[in-house]
Amino acid sequence: MELKIQCPQGRAGSTPAAGISYTPLGVFFLSIGVYIFMSDKFQLLLKQICFPEEHDAFKEIKDGSIETVKLFKSKRQWFFVFSFRSVLSYESFVLFDSLLHSSFNSLGAKASFEIRLFSTSCDDSLLEDYFSYALDSLKVSHFSIYSLFSNLKVEISNNSICVKAPAAYY
To answer: What sign for the dihedral angle of Cα 114, 119, 122, 126?
Structure first.
């Protein structure tokens, strides 16, 4: 099978016959090449933040990749988009988060990130750990939200995250 992209007539001096042709194999190698390049950058980041290779978490996190990086020079802020095959264990996530933030803080910079996953399956216990982590970040800046949600349970239902409130909340 071959994918053909043709420019419509009148666009950028093209003719109806002008076009670009890609074979799926070429596109596959291109996307794999980009993934390998960005996973190499992720490996470099792991070294720079001193992620311990002998730690059990390294086995889980080492196959990650950097999808994008945005640098806001004037604010000395970095924003990363990381991708992983599946949800990281809570311990691996906390170690990675801690090392990333402390490394950037030691340089007078700030780092924030988003994680994208190929597989999002996880159990309720892991979900509760992540929910607690998110709530803890609200303790100081949004205490009222923290106090409303801190005793609630979360679960996954129909591929959605549900926060369960007792009947008195309704």
So the answer is: negative
According to DSSP H, which parts of 14-84 are helical?
24-48, 56-61
131 close to 142: Cβ distance less than 8 angstroms: no
Tell me which DSSP letter residue 64 carries.
Answer: -
CB distance 88 to 59 below 8 Å: no
CA–CA gap between residue 139 and residue 147 (Å, rounded): 8
pLDDT at 75: 94
The residue assigned the tokens 């490996």 is: 43
The C-alpha torsion from 136 through 140 and 141 to 145, rounded to 10°, is 60
**65-72 β-sheet, strand order:** 65-72, 77-84, 110-117
Tokens of 28: 């596959």
Q: Which residues of the chain have pLDDT under 70?
A: 1-38, 168-170
| Token reading at 135 | 């709530």
